Amino acid sequence: MAVAAPSELKKSDFFAFLGLSRKLNIDAADLEQRYRALSRQFHPDYFYNAPPAERRASLERSSYLNDAYRTLKNNATRIEYLLKLEGAMATSNDGAQSANAAPPAGLLEEVFALNEELDEIRELRANGAPADQWKPRLDKARAPIDAKRVNHEAQLQELSRSWDTLVERNASDAERRRVLDELRERFLERNYINNLLAGIERELNS
Question: Is 36 exposed, middle or buried (0-12, 13-18, 19+ CB in 10 A)?
Fold first, then answer.
């Protein structure tokens, strides 16, 4: 398995470092096996008596390997990393959208309805209404957002498969860009939805 030298880590990427192509569907067992093999190869304990430069190189490689493994083993962080790697999303924290930010265009209707309902529920609670009056309304308001979440997860899976197919046949930049742009939109919408749902959970538990 080809591995980048420490001085070349900045030129490498997590996929290449682990000997993987830039696909979004990764075999978890294969990823784990690659990680463990490289962990043994780079572990600082094996370089205890080595010169300082080699010990530093071991630590650098081990740290990079851990970052790569943590990122690629999770579907969401893997998609976000690929989008940044391919230049489809800025390297700032785009993925951590707040539910208070402007909603994506595809969610405007649901977010508007949810916010109206939440305002009324908060007013009920402020006036001392018992939970059996407002909790069912909150659950009902949550239902369309939950449905959107399920739909977006399915879309992300389908787009991930489409991306992998493009990688396999070495598709043109234009074809790749189209799928990457769709992935980015669905990914940001997914994060917005998750933040909305987290906000509803806070309402329920407060």
Answer: exposed
Helices (H), the chain: 14-17, 28-42, 52-72, 75-85, 108-126, 131-168, 173-205
The residue count of the chain comes to: 206
> Three-state SS string across 105-137, please?
HHHHHHHHHHHHHHHHHHHHHHCCCCHHHHHHH
The per-residue pLDDT for range 75-89, each reduced to its tens digit, is 999 999 999 999 998
| Crossing angle (nearest 10°) for helices 75-85 and 131-168 | 50
pTM of the model: 0.82
The number of C-alpha atoms within 13 Å of 66 and in the hemisphere containing its C-beta is 7
How many angstroms separate the Cα of 70 from the Cα of each of 15, 60, 78, 170, 204?
Answer: 12, 16, 9, 27, 32
